[in-house]
Amino acid sequence: MDSGSISRLPVTPLPSSASRRLAAVGRDPINLHRALAHAPALLAPVLDLIHALRFDATVSRSLRELMICRIGQLEGSEYELAHHLPMAEESGLDAEQVASIAEWQRAGCFSEPQRAVLGYAEHLGAGAERDDEALDKCFGPVEQTELTVTGATYIALARMLRALDVRIDEPLLR
């Protein structure tokens, strides 16, 4: 990979439809979008799914970011963590919580719903046993479905990022 590349594939222009979609929600393209630009017909639904998770879900942003960060850790996705650890803090998680995500089972800084989300992330990303009682106590069917789609989507994204060897975006490296 040369120093000007963003992934193991050559750079290609972002489709205008993707640029418009990102602009509509006030986002600049990131290296993930640029890497997927080789397949515009697939990039569009990926963007739709990511944006639905970000803007249309009923589960709080902080719980979704908690799920995404734990999935990023389980998948070893430095790219996802570079993007989502700051988002987790912006969404309301405090510094102790962000620093304790990997050791959440021993940390005393997480609420019951946060612990249910982290346990569910372990189920989705590492095959741990699912704690239906904790999930049912904290979340209804809609929220459990949103958490499932969030976790599964970010597992898939982590694997795309790894397979395409997508570099962390330059501003996040500083």
TrEMBL record:
It comes from the Bacteria. It holds the Pfam family CMD. Residues 40-122 form the Carboxymuconolactone decarboxylase-like domain. InterPro entries: AhpD-like, CMD-like. This is Carboxymuconolactone decarboxylase family protein. It comes from Glycomyces mayteni.
